[in-house]
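User: Could you check the structure of this?
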Amino acid sequence: MEFEITETALLRFRHRRPGDHNAAAGISIALDDFGAGYSSLSHIHRLGFDKLKIDKSFVMNFDRDARCMNITRSVANLCQNLGIASVAEGVESEEIAEGLKAMGVRLAQGYHFSRPLPLELAIDYALRCEAAASARNSLSA
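Assistant: Sure, the predicted structure tokens are below.
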């Protein structure tokens, strides 16, 4: 199970590490909307997140704004250096998805992949994606 905590919610955890007891219970913590609020490297260090979700305001303008691209790349590199996953939010085109992949971002979400779905359709979508990925991997092996 994974919980997402927004940067603004971090203010409530100033003196606690929400991840201290979670790993043994199979729970991971993702910092949502990173870069859009009260970003601080001390939060990442002190709270021990498993993932950083790069805010869509940077990702959606990735292909038109060099500063957004550089911020996205910097956060992706930070995650790689810390050994945590990066997730790009707001991926709405194949070009942005490919650019993120070239930077080393392996997890993404956005309308390019799917609009929000009810649970039953989301499960069906996930199963179809898994089957397609499995077929691609067996063809390349």
